[in-house]
């Protein structure tokens, strides 16, 4: 396409940007990035991440921000998606939006250090798979599936830290990840890539980034900046050779030029004394397009992400660390993930699904001055509850059991839920297990003593209901009018 034709096409698209499908199609055809081509303005940010080692921490978490710096945990700080396949844990998720905005994928490392896998095992004989979820709306996600990316690479020992970017030159995605292919008996992680259009079938993996000598590379992320004032279309940031480097190119697959590293800004991967030691670089452009935050995972201190800001990704002297007062990462530690700019429609769906839950109390039907509460991690019904938050719960969609299922999350102990153990009700921290999810899920039905109230049937013991007995909470079979009254509650503010 000639320069004149390109300009005319761009001018036509910008003039008719409200005609989203046609404008979008042409912008993709002339090679602008999905970030620049969205017909709707962006109103918020979604971070997809994990929170640390452990069966609960190594899952998919969502967090939301309006300004890109202050984050709120979604879904009450509990995982949004759980893997039940492969190693049963995931790390390093990336989120991919199709150019048309009609399909999304989450792709993550199949690895659970907290489930008993050691780092040595994972490095030398880890999963060669990635874990993939797919959605058309960011809300309803497919079951996780394994995508074998590394078995076709000779002597590849694992597959870590996946990322993907749309390549208009080939009209498909470049999926890239790190695999350990040892050299002379030494560990040698390098980046490989394959092309895909559906994250199901792949081209033959190819070597992509191979550092010299014994240097390795695991974490790298590429962004598209078609309007960059520095003249480059793509930038990538990597953790390699003990530094956080920045490279630039006009072609995703070739022609990369190293621009330097972030040691002058006070950050490295451990090679420069006196710097903050970080990994897992994660780019996020401001919604108005004026600048970028490069988030870096402070893995050495376990503090999670911190952002480095720039208005010109290609100018290494323009990066500066954000002050602590500008940043709020919410309740959970946010580690190696991906930030996506949200349209108003996407943001509305995300917040409606995971942004909040009704805070309620459950008042006893036959002792109307008493409420379900926790005390010393035991479930009870009591009057005059102090502190009052002990009797307040976020009534969430149940972990299992269908659309009528609910789970009760403590307001003053986020991440703790009412569950049964040996038929007694306790308040326990979510541990990621299938057993916990079943024990903490209850089917809401019409009240056994009064149909205008509610009763709650155990999902995994459906013959038993949540009831109080001598003020303690249990799940029991209901065999009398008294038991039915004990198992009936009114859900009130």
From TrEMBL:
Q: Which GO terms describe its biological process?
A: L-arabinose metabolic process
InterPro entries linked: AbfB_ABD, AbfB_ABD_sf, GH43_arabinanases, Glyco_hydro_beta-prop_sf
Q: Where is the Alpha-L-arabinofuranosidase B arabinose-binding domain?
A: 361-491
Among the GO molecular function terms of this UniProt record, one is:
alpha-L-arabinofuranosidase activity
Which SUPFAM superfamilies does this chain map to?
AbfB domain, Arabinanase/levansucrase/invertase
Q: Which residues form a coiled coil?
A: none
What superkingdom heads the lineage? Answer: Bacteria
Instruction: Return the protein name.
Output: Alpha-arabinofuranosidase II
Naturally occurring in which organism (per UniProt): Cystobacter fuscus (strain ATCC 25194 / DSM 2262 / NBRC 100088 / M29)
